[in-house]
Design brief:
The chain is an all-alpha fold and about 80 residues long. It has one domain. The protein is built from three helices and no strands. The longest helix has 29 residues.
Length: about 80
């Protein structure tokens, strides 16, 4: 294994954990599993605070980073 592959695997582990935590931090929007656990009781669909928008942006950026790392690892494994 070369250093790039090891670095990408470590980055994949970190981004996977962070992405899981960020997704769990989002508010439930209702109609799904969040209703089963009581998350759908207080849901205002129209308003989203600054913290929620920033959480959405960071989650999207981290998700894109996660996908790029997976594609990079796949290419390295396919051509080595």
């Amino acid at each position: 294994m070369d250093a790039l592959q090891i670095a990408l695997q470590i980055l994949l582990g970190i981004t996977s954990l962070l992405l899981t935590l960020l997704i769990l931090l989002h508010k439930g929007r209702g109609g799904g599993l969040s209703d089963m656990f009581g998350g759908g009781m207080s849901s205002s669909l129209g308003s989203s605070g600054v913290a929620e928008r920033n959480l959405n942006r960071f989650t999207v950026i981290l998700g894109i980073t996660w996908a790029v790392v997976i594609i990079g690892l796949g290419l390295i494994m396919a051509y080595s």
